[in-house]
Amino acid sequence: MKITLCKDFEFEAAQALPSFPEGHKCRAMHGHSFKLTISVTGEVDPKTGIFYDHALISEAMAPLMETLDHACLNDIPGLEIPSIENICHWLWTRLAPKLPGLSEIVLHETSRSRCVYRGD
Length: 120
Hints:
Blueprint: E1 2-15, E2 30-43, H1 54-68, E3 71-72, H2 84-95, E4 102-108, E5 114-117
Parallel strand pairs: 1-3
Antiparallel strand pairs: 1-2, 2-4, 4-5
C-alpha cells in the first residue's frame, strides 16, 4: 500500500526581493509567518503497518529551522534571492539526501499564497 505522510512546520522570517520593480511592496524588506509542509511517499511495511517515522522528518528539519526561523533570508547562503520558489528549492536540496521518499514541499507565505515543489 502506497501512502504519503506529511509533517507541518512554521517559521518567521524577513526577506527583500530586489528583482521586483521599484515601488513594489515585496522589493522592500518585509516579513512572513511561513507555514511549511514536508511530504514523503512510499510503501507501508506489511509486517509493521508503518511507512515512516515522523521523527525522521523533524530531525532532518531541525537544523534548517534553526537557520530559517527569525532570520533575514537574504543573508542565508543560497537564499540571496529568497523568493518562495527559491526557498522551496533550497529546502529540497538539503532534505532530499536525508529523507528517502521526499515527494513534496508546500510553503505558504500567506494564508492565500503558496508554492508547491516536487523536485522537478
